[in-house]
Amino acid sequence: MKGTAYLVQSALVSLWWLGLVISKDFYQAFQFPGISGVAFNSFFAPDLFVITFLSIIRAYKPSRDLELIILGGFAYGSLYCVNASLFTSGGYLPTIIMLLGLFYNLFLVYQSNLFRESKSGNVWSNGFQTVIQILSIWSITLILFPWIIIDSFEIQMPSSQLIKVIAYVIIILSSLFGLSSAYFLVLYGNGTPLPAYQTNKLVVRGPYKYVRNPMAIAGIGQGLAISIYFSSIHLLIYTILGGLLWHIVVRPIEEKNMFKRFGKDYQLYRDNVKLWLPKIR
């Protein structure tokens, strides 16, 4: 599982640099005001050897030392970008990308410490935590990140009322679907959607009766709605990448944790309920 995650990382970093080479607009979106392109381009070799090359090696050879070296590379790059953004009041897109890479690697290195069952059996307490979690995640993934992408690529506001209506319908339905999924986790699972405060019971009711990952489906739907609203290929790529990373990297780790906690019950559930599309009975 980790091997796949590191292969994906090496591929994404390589594709990112390829995009910088072949597209002037893409390159410009990742620049810091007042910092020369030479300084920016100087990160090519460190990215190639510390991130891409070592990620490929780690994909085929488990090594805690390699994981920490790669993590250190992202930590250094993140600090540089944060500092550059503070000094230049710009370059937020590369800074966000580096921070995402940092958290991605923190997740890979310390994932065993992230999955914990909620110690609170109180529905109201778990419900309050869930509301805070959802508001935080939505603020970051549906407002902050899209705004940075829109600003960096100078995406224009939509003019078609029909497109707006379609986007509103999709995001409302997706949000309600996600909220209802969270509701069933809190009410019947004695926990929250967040891995650090996960449910104590296997939930197979509500949306979970029909698909195994309704909250992921809801998140992709919300991202799709935003990309439709702005008619933006950049936001669509953002949504697709998020969905693919969840499916390829996060989902297998979550499912392994579910097998460990619920055993045969989860195996039976997994055999009878599909991942993305409802099973037609």
Q: What is the N-to-C succession of helices and strands? A: HHHHHHHHHHH
Instruction: Kindly report how far apart the N and C termini lie.
Output: 32 Å
Shape: globular
Mean of pLDDT: 90
How many domains? The number is: 2
Q: Can you tell me the CATH topology of the largest domain?
A: Four Helix Bundle (Hemerythrin (Met), subunit A)
Q: How many beta-strand elements?
A: 0
CATH architecture of the largest domain: Up-down Bundle
Tally of DSSP helical segments? 11
Q: What share of the residues does DSSP label as strand, in percent?
A: under 5%
* Secondary structure category: mainly alpha
The helix content is over 70%
Cα-atom radius of gyration: 20 Å
**The level-1 CATH class of the largest domain:** Mainly Alpha
In the predicted model, the low-confidence regions spanning at least 5 consecutive residues are none
Would you give an account of this structure?
This is Isoprenylcysteine carboxylmethyltransferase family protein. Pfam families: PEMT. It comes from Antarcticibacterium arcticum. The longest helix is centred in the middle third of the chain and has 30 residues, at 123-152. This protein has two domains: 1-113; 115-281, Four Helix Bundle (Hemerythrin (Met), subunit A), CATH 1.20.120. The mean pLDDT is 90. The protein contains eleven helices and no strands. It has 281 residues and is mainly alpha-helical.
